[in-house]
Amino acid sequence: MSKYDPLREHLARLDDVVWAARLEDVEEILGSGLPKSAREHRTWWANSGGSLVHQNAWLDAGWRVERTDLMRNVVVFRRLRIGGTSLAGRANGSAARTDRRSDEEKRLSSVASSLRQPVTVTLRAEWTVLGDIHKVPCSSTVLPKGAGIIRAITLQDGQPSTVILPTAEVQAAYRRLRMALKGVDGADDGESADALLEKLGMERSAPMECDVVRPGNAWLLTDGRGRKADLDSEQERLLVGQLLYVQELQAERDAKQIIM
Q: What is the distance between the alpha carbons of residues 152 and 165, in angstroms, rounded to a whole number?
């Protein structure tokens, strides 16, 4: 058993993508001190592996050292892959020597392997303030035409509660919300004002602020490369809405997502 096995096991159990560890944290996990070179030389934290058992500890767990700040005693690890370890990969490599699959199966396996690299998908979105829904009329020029994402904000027990509303028609969805707050049934599908408010978890008498993500104000980024999201596409509109909803949850706000 290697001295660094506890570090490998700790990294393998983590659910995070990035772990910024103090050297003291690493020593606590190991149950012993790091060598002097680990505190003085960045090369000790290189990702070369091979015969270096301490480097293999994080590489075998599917992680790499992204950067080191030895002046502050901090090392940042980043996950290379989700699930599996390089040990499993070596086992697969051993099996490959007696692989009897067809050429087509091998080509598919090779292509599929390239598709399984970790992917980071992020969203950058800018909210445009619509304001108090009781005061801003449906004819307001601030309401964009066409698709977008509405966010309705109310207070529940003094804390913000939000509803994310991806919609193909911002003006129509906003009008439906406003009419529901006035007690007017305005849904084409026959849904009553009370039913809509119940689904949204909102009260008619409560104040409500609204924001909107306009077309052109949302960017999807994959591994650092981005483009504007096409909110006219239902698939991309729902993806943006879902990412905004997740952001609300991560901000620890009471949130819902309703498609309108």
A: 8
> What pTM does this model have?
0.60
For the cut 50, the answer to whether the pLDDT of residue 236 exceeds it is yes
Residue 204 near residue 181, CB atoms below 8 Å? yes
For the stretch 85-129, pLDDT in tens is: 444 444 444 444 456 778 888 788 878 876 766 667 788 999 999
Closest CA to 11 of 58, 76, 68: 58
pLDDT at 223 over 50: yes
Q: Which amino acid is at 132?
A: D
First-to-last alpha carbon distance for the chain, in angstroms, is 58
At residue 90, the pLDDT reads: 46
Q: Which of 167, 257, 176 is nearest to 215 (CA)?
A: 167
What count of other Cβ atoms lies within 10 Å of the Cβ of residue 188?
A: 7
Report, at the CATH architecture level, how domain 122-257 is classified: 3-Layer(aba) Sandwich (3.40)
CATH 3.40.1440 in the chain is located at 122-257
Residue with tokens 């992204």: 66
